[in-house]
Amino acid sequence: MIGIVQPDSGNITSICDSVARLGLDYRLLPEPQLDGITHLILPGQGRFGAVMRYLHRTGWADALTQWVADGKPLVGICVGLQVLFQSSAEDDDPGLGILPGRVEWVQAPKRPMMGWAPVAFNNIDLPDGDAYFVNSYVVPESEHAVATVTYGASFAAAVARDNVVAFQFHPEKSGAWGQEVLGLCLK
Q: InterPro entries under this entry (predicted)?
């Protein structure tokens, strides 16, 4: 059973639809009730600080940290990737600190980055393809980057470490390729 952390804002219908198209059962989880859950998806929409305050208020911050420490699979998407890091230039709220580093303002002439860009994976067995991005903040390239994209400057399109994989782009909105990438992460 796939658990989808249900944020208090944002539309997660496309993530639910994508998981259902994969033929996988899922449960929306406004709070960390993890019995029977094998994989977690941490979506995110909005401001880094607002998402972090929600995660703390609902008990998700501690639950996610423990989930990862226990070696269970976690998939982060968009701001769900960003909050895995220690901090963000967007807000003063600290992140979960599951991955080292700081989220920065995208260095590009036009913000937000919105649209399609090619993504090539390395050091992880996922297919290359065209991804859909909507973001103003990014994770700079780091040792955990398994895909990069260039929009003004290069940044991490995806990161991975042990049982965690996370995408700055939206696999659930990236067509058949994104569906395949998400499916490979959830099996």
A: Class_I_gatase-like, GATASE, Imidazole-glycPsynth_HisH
